[in-house]
């Protein structure tokens, strides 16, 4: 090989691929006030569609109580150098979840799909942590409560409101109030959500955070142990006949409380 050909090769210019890329700004959807999420490089804007960006809820709210919540957004539209996104899920950090579980407690998980009023389908994972060991029948009942309450929220809410209820903790708080009537709780959280499908042509709606109201959902339950104990405390001592009647009534209540979980299993 001649020295001339070697010189020709050494003179070739090396183009830095990063100089060919442009920087695009990514914004959250209207349900998160179109907050600026960051910049992302790309050589072709077509390659940006479908790319995901993960941020902490703290980056949006600047509230230190939200540092354990991760949000995921997917780019669905590019206008100029602006990328519009859709919310595709959230998740609590693993260290936060592990810190909630203590020895002697029980973790009860519920994973279900929910369809919102405007056709969005989310797979939601919620869990509760009890203060003491829970029985299998109690786990079954609590899991059913999680499913019913979240399903009612989904049916009565559009996707933006449903997402905010999961992420900001309104649903978990409502669940906690109901489940505490069944068994003493240590914690209740919506751990994870994933967007399964959504209809085409849906546009996010702007919302006013101050005027947004979440109506508490309720679940009809039979009498259980806590309610029976309250009845016993309220009863006043009387004659022997009344005491015998109270004892028989109390025995019926306890039997009904024990049947609460058995009925749920059969159904």
Explained architecture:
- The structure is a single chain.
- The protein is elongated and about 80 Å long.
- It is 36% helix and 27% strand.
- The protein folds into 3 domains: 22-86, no CATH class; 93-205 and 216-221, Band 7 domain (Tetrahydropterin Synthase, Chain A); 225-266.
- The chain is built from 8 helices and 8 strands.
- Strands 1, 2, 3, 4, 5, 6, 7 and 8 form an 8-stranded mixed sheet that branches.
- The termini are far apart.
- It has 267 residues and is of the alpha+beta class.
Note poorly predicted spans: 239-243, 245-267
Kindly state the number of beta strands: 8
Radius of gyration: 27 Å
Average pLDDT for all residues: 80
Q: Judging by the overall fold, what is the CATH architecture of the largest domain?
A: 2-Layer Sandwich
Structural class, by secondary structure, is alpha+beta
Write the layout of secondary structure elements.
Layout: H1 3-10, E1 22-27, E2 36-42, E3 52-56, H2 58-61, E4 69-79, E5 82-92, H3 94-100, E6 107-115, E7 121-130, H4 136-155, H5 159-168, H6 170-179, E8 185-197, H7 225-234, H8 240-266
Parallel strand pairs: 1-5
Antiparallel strand pairs: 1-2, 3-4, 4-5, 5-8, 6-7, 7-8
Helix pairs in contact: 4-6, 4-8, 7-8
Short description:
The protein is of the alpha+beta class and 267 residues long. The chain has helices spanning 3-10, 58-61, 94-100, 136-155, 159-168, 170-179, 225-234, 240-266; strands at 22-27, 36-42, 52-56, 69-79, 82-92, 107-115, 121-130, 185-197.
Comma- or semicolon-separated keywords:
36% helix; Tetrahydropterin Synthase, Chain A; 267 residues; single chain; 8 strands; elongated; 8 helices; disordered C terminus; eight-stranded mixed β-sheet; alpha+beta
């Amino acid at each position: 090989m001649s020295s001339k050909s070697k010189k020709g090769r050494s003179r070739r210019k090396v183009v830095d691929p990063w100089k060919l890329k442009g920087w695009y700004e990514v914004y959250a959807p209207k349900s998160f006030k179109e907050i600026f999420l960051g910049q992302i490089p790309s050589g072709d804007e077509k390659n940006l569609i479908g790319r995901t960006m993960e941020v902490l809820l703290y980056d949006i709210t600047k509230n230190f109580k939200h540092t354990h919540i991760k949000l995921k957004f997917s780019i669905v539209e590019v206008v100029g150098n602006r990328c519009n996104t859709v919310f595709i899920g959230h998740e609590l950090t693993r260290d936060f979840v592990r810190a909630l579980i203590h020895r002697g407690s029980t973790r009860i998980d519920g994973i279900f799909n929910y369809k919102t009023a405007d056709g969005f389908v989310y797979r939601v994972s919620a869990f509760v942590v009890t203060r003491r060991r829970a029985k299998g029948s109690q786990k079954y009942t609590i899991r059913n409560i999680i499913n019913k309450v979240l399903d009612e929220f989904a049916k009565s809410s559009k996707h933006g409101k449903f997402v905010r209820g999961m992420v900001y903790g309104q649903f978990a708080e409502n669940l906690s109030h109901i489940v505490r009537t069944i068994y003493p709780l240590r914690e209740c959280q919506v751990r994870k959500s994933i967007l399964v499908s959504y209809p085409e042509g849906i546009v996010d709606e702007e919302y006013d955070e101050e005027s947004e109201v979440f109506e508490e959902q309720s679940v009809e339950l039979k009498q259980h142990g806590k309610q029976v104990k309250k009845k016993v405390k309220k009863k006043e001592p009387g004659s022997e006949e009344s005491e015998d009647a109270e004892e028989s009534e109390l025995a019926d209540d306890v039997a009904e409380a024990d049947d609460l979980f058995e009925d749920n299993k059969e159904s």
